[in-house]
Amino acid sequence: MKPKLTTEKIVQKATDIINKNGISTFTMSAVAEALRVTSPHLYKHISGLEPLLDGVTHAAFGHLKQVTIDAAIGKSGIEALIAIARVYREFGRNFPGEFACAARHSNPKDAETAKLRADIIQIYATIFGGKPDDDALIHKIRVYRSLIFGFVTLEVQGAFGDSRSIDESFAMIENLLGHVVELPVQKS
């Protein structure tokens, strides 16, 4: 007798597939094949590809929130920002599909994923010493996230493409993080 198929099992299998093969070639039929069911059977639980990607994105944010917390515990300021940057880099290497999903725009109707994203922003805000409703702080958080997500995305995609040390480049990013904290925000 086959184990009962659930939305959670489908999302977990989709997450595994995306981590292994990437998001660009992801299909419902790949999930169905991996679960040894027909594609129409999946539609009893998930209404389509976008809702399934929303489920993977939610799972990715839950995972990312936990690694963010784990990295930041017992640290503050630049030490916490560097620790988070390092675990994000490791996260991107180990879970490239989840990392890509965390960088995509999630469904605005998905309040649970929005809450996870807001929780992560709150962690950053605490480290930066402000509140998430402070415009200047949000700009600093965006710069920080852009540096980290941009670097890790390029690294995971193999876009650096030469023999120079990627670790040395990342060390330069870590050195820049102290400057992000001190950045003045100019109003446009």
Element layout with pairings:
Elements: H1 7-21, H2 28-35, H3 39-42, H4 49-72, H5 77-94, H6 96-103, H7 111-128, H8 135-156, H9 166-182
Helix pairs in contact: 1-2, 1-4, 4-5, 4-6, 4-7, 5-6, 5-8, 5-9, 7-8, 8-9
Task: Give structural attributes.
188 residues; mainly alpha; Tetracycline Repressor, domain 2; 71% helix; 0% strand
What Rg, in angstroms, do the CA atoms define? Answer: 18 Å
Q: What is the subunit organization of this protein?
A: single chain
Query: Mean pLDDT, rounded to whole units?
Result: 89
CATH class call = Mainly Alpha
Helix content: over 70%
- Biggest sheet record: none
Output the number of helix runs: 9
Distance N to C terminus: 63 Å
Structural class: mainly alpha
Short characterization:
Helices cover 71% and strands 0% of the residues.
Care to describe what's here?
The mean pLDDT is 89. With 188 residues, the protein is mainly alpha-helical. α8 runs antiparallel to α9. The chain has one domain: Tetracycline Repressor, domain 2. It has nine helices and no strands. Helix content is 71%, strand content 0%. The relative contact order is 0.11. The chain has helices at residues 7-21, 28-35, 39-42, 49-72, 77-94, 96-103, 111-128, 135-156, 166-182. It is globular and about 55 Å long.
